[in-house]
Amino acid sequence: MADKIIRVLLVDDHQVVRRGLRTFLEIQDDIEVVGEASDGAEGVARTEELHPDIVLMDIKMPGTDGIEALRRLRELDNPAKVLIVTSFTEQRTVVPALRAGASGYVYKDVDPDALAGAIRSVHAGHVLLQPEVAGALLAQDDAGPGTGRGSTLTEREREVLGLIADGRSNREIARAFVLSEKTVKTHVSNILMKLDVADRTQAALWAVRNGAAG
Fold first, then answer.
1. Which of residues 104 and 64 earns the better pLDDT score?
2. Were 64 and a residue from 40, 59, 116, 192 both cysteine, which residue would form a disulfide, CB within 3.0 to 4.6 Å?
């Protein structure tokens, strides 16, 4: 049994998809499905109510879609990590979801064991990006903030940024530098502010593009 159970919320407008995901996830010793929602608005409400660690979110849903739900969760400063589960492979669909705050994505035909692994990886603080989507994000960022912003980072912030780009969680970064998690969170906040990016995903991509990754 894992030390910590990962609490998961399922958000998808197809009941058969939710049932299939629940059936598989409920046999995992370290994962608990705490609830379901059939659209983005309900997903936001249930996330606020149930406090899951991970939200498995579909993109295309009637009413409030997954991207709008992500934006609302960011506005609410909800700490849940969102893993997109989608049947859409186009970059024009997936990239906006990542920009809205998703920690990664998997396809609906993903191998069940790979899905469980993705949930554990995102829960640990990693970002799941396919190479072609990472490339698309980087290409779009070329018109964004310049590399000059990185010159304001302290040496420690650059070191922390390198580990963020490596997919490390705050806890892992704290252990690596023998710091408290609170101190690491402060460094991360400063990095996001100085680079003028919204989240860890964009900070990691900035680091890769500008040679700051390990």
1. 64
2. 40
